[in-house]
Specification:
Elements: H1 3-29, H2 37-72, H3 84-99, H4 104-107, H5 109-134, H6 139-163, H7 166-176, H8 185-201, H9 203-207, H10 209-212, H11 216-221, H12 226-248, H13 254-266, H14 271-295, H15 303-326
Helix pairs in contact: 1-14, 2-8, 2-12, 2-13, 2-14, 3-5, 3-6, 3-7, 5-12, 8-12, 13-14
Length: 327
């Protein structure tokens, strides 16, 4: 990548960042009565945690999707194929089915977040590390098994909801939809710490992403322990998705949208720029979408519905675009 293209991408990132800042400012300050200090403090107490949670979610999902697509070498896949969203819904459904909606594991946000994160982290670590070794370090086999696990988790969850008490099911539904309402500030702090640890622990593998995209043979020739690096990167991806999902709930198509828009706008192999672009696009999508949910639809439609619809349409566009190029 020449210096001119690099500077051009930096300018694009600055423009996207400015748009994101404007949207954040609009979300924070529109509708605020500045002359009333009590109302101002109350509004900020509600809105600032939402904004921080959406920024964390955008960064975690954006980074995870860019890394996952580079590892798989396919730009129309998302980390959802690893089964983390389905596992999240299964965990919450099992807790309500076994212990009831009044149990502390369901009503206590901090404990619920910790249980989600620990279970998803352990399962991701054990299952995918083991699978990667058993399949001879074949990423496509791991992806296929992840798809099967998604169907498996979803089938169990569906069976439990069918025999569950209807009142318990109504209570459960609120936790199965991604929501940025009433975000717990303690969860935000814990999520930032976990993501920072992921960045530190996997920093060497993350630094090799640009080399890995050259292909397995080229990466090995350049001295990269390819199989170990891919295994650790997949683990980092699943942990990032686990943090984002445990914090706000499953958002299936967000990663697909923001990662591919970042790739189309920047057209670069530099993952630092791609991840920054995906994270900023995620901030715009989430905060802009939440603004519409609150101001236009008055909370009647959750933001996950908009993202799912837009993501489905965008996914079809990517498939049709790819088929036209191949024909």
């Amino acid at each position: 990548m020449n210096k001119r293209a690099y500077r051009k991408n930096i300018i694009k990132l600055i423009v996207i960042a400015l748009i994101a800042i404007i949207i954040v400012a609009a979300f924070l300050f529109i509708g605020i009565k500045f002359h009333n200090h009590k109302l101002l403090r109350y509004a900020m107490k509600l809105r600032i945690p939402k904004v921080i949670a959406m920024i964390i979610t955008a960064f975690a999902i954006g980074a995870a999707t860019i890394i996952f697509q580079s590892v798989i070498n396919n730009t129309i896949v998302t980390p959802c194929l690893l089964g983390m969203n389905a596992l999240y819904t299964l965990i919450h459904t099992s807790v309500v089915f076994v212990l009831g909606s009044g149990s502390i594991l369901f009503t206590n946000d901090n404990l619920s977040f910790l249980v989600d994160l620990v279970l998803m982290g352990i399962i991701a670590t054990v299952v995918y590390s083991w699978l990667f070794k058993m399949t001879g370090h074949n990423v496509l086999y791991v992806l296929l098994v992840g798809t099967v696990l998604t169907s498996f988790f979803s089938s169990i969850q569906s069976t439990l909801t069918r025999v569950m008490d209807p009142n318990e099911y109504d209570t459960l539904l609120t936790s199965l939809v991604a929501s940025f309402s009433n975000i717990n500030s303690e969860i935000i702090i814990f999520s930032v710490i976990i993501l920072a640890l992921i960045g530190v622990i996997f920093r060497k593998e993350l630094a090799l992403l640009d080399v890995i995209t050259l292909g397995k043979e080229q990466a090995i020739n350049l001295g990269v322990d390819y199989d170990r690096c891919i295994r650790r990167l997949l683990l980092a991806v699943t942990l990032c998705i686990a943090v984002a999902t445990a914090m706000v709930g499953p958002i299936s198509f967000l990663g697909l949208i923001i990662a591919n828009i970042s790739r189309q706008l920047l057209k670069t192999y530099r993952h630092t720029q791609l991840i920054a672009g995906a994270a900023l696009m995620g901030v715009i999508a989430l905060i802009g979408g939440q603004f519409i949910v609150e101001r236009v639809f008055v909370y009647s439609i959750p933001i996950s519905v908009f993202i799912t619809v837009a993501g489905g349409i965008y996914f079809l566009y990517l498939i049709l675009k790819g088929s036209r190029h191949n024909s």
